[in-house]
Amino acid sequence: MLRGLAITPPVLGRISIGRVVEKNGKRLPEKDDEFTVTTQVQGRDGWITHPIDESLRGAVGGKLRSIPVWLPFSDPDLNLRASYSMFDRPTGRPLCVGNGETCRRSTAAGVQSMPCPAPEGCDLAASSGCKPYARLNVRIGNDDELGTFIFRTTGFNSIRTLAARLHYLRAVSGGLLATLPLELRLRGKSTTQSHGAAIYFADLTTRTGATLADALAQARELDASRRAAGFDQDALDHAAREGLALGVFEESAEEGGAVVEEFFPDSVAPGAESTEPLRPAVLGQKLANRVSRGSRAKAGSAPLAVEPAGT
After folding, report:
1. What distances in angstroms separate CA 257 from CA 92, 192, 254, 272, one per listed residue?
2. What InterPro entries is this protein classified in (predicted)?
3. C-beta separation of 147 from 139 below 8 A
4. Residue 308: pLDDT band with limits 50, 70, 90
5. Is the pLDDT of residue 273 over 60?
6. Per-domain residue ranges for the chain?
7. 96-102 long-range CB contacts below 8 Å, 24 or more apart?
8. Cβ neighbours around 203 below 10 Å, total
9. Burial call 13-30: b when 16+ CB within 10 Å, e when fewer
10. How far is it, in rounded angstroms, from Cα 13 to Cα 15?
11. What is the mean pLDDT of residues 242-267?
């Protein structure tokens, strides 16, 4: 195999929560309150809808807020690959990818391994837009058992929820993630940082109408059937792990341009999911400002409006 080129799971299409729109001469991401399944081809108005999107919408009879899926791998970290990532915006090239302990960084002397303190403690990240970035690969339907649809996100809520679900489901199923009938589900919540507005994130659950016990029974049955047919899930996971390890970075410059436009813009459209925690220095300044306002109020100064937390 070619060294330096990551062999990633075959992708048949994309799953997104929103789209990129043009506002005031800038192309910015705009969140939605439903999923959209698209091809990997862009038209004049954006990504072209995948034929499976229409069939899924017909089944639910409304907005697409849940998608029945299967996972390609039994290893949670192969299905969901998350990292702190930084891209060069003009070219779309990955510049630095880390896990909070170590990172691979593109420098003038080549790609080097360095300590990774996570974005909150990295001087370079503060000025270059490093943040959590994840890709989830899932199968929709059974037409292509090795082909996947990819859901990309920089949403902290999506990344944390999906990671937790994958590890919990692997634990309770005895490692049978790849045969569990699951559902990618859209959930909403409001936070202080969103000023009470709804933000949407992805979750992974058993399918509507089925209990966890039902899903586990089906997973064991399907696993036994696959093994009898000669399907080697462990070997598939091993091949995927080796393929991903071949590359320094998972994204190429060719893919990076679209990733940067959608997930690493210069500014964020209203309603987008917050992805980065408030930096301690910023939080400290806000607290200092509030203490100062309180002191002035006690001294007889006119009261000032309280700044919403998390802004």
Report:
1. 4, 31, 6, 19
2. Gp3-like
3. yes
4. very low
5. no
6. 11-263, 278-311
7. 96/124, 96/125, 96/128, 96/130, 97/249, 97/250
8. 16
9. bbbbbbebeeeeeeebbe
10. 7
11. 86
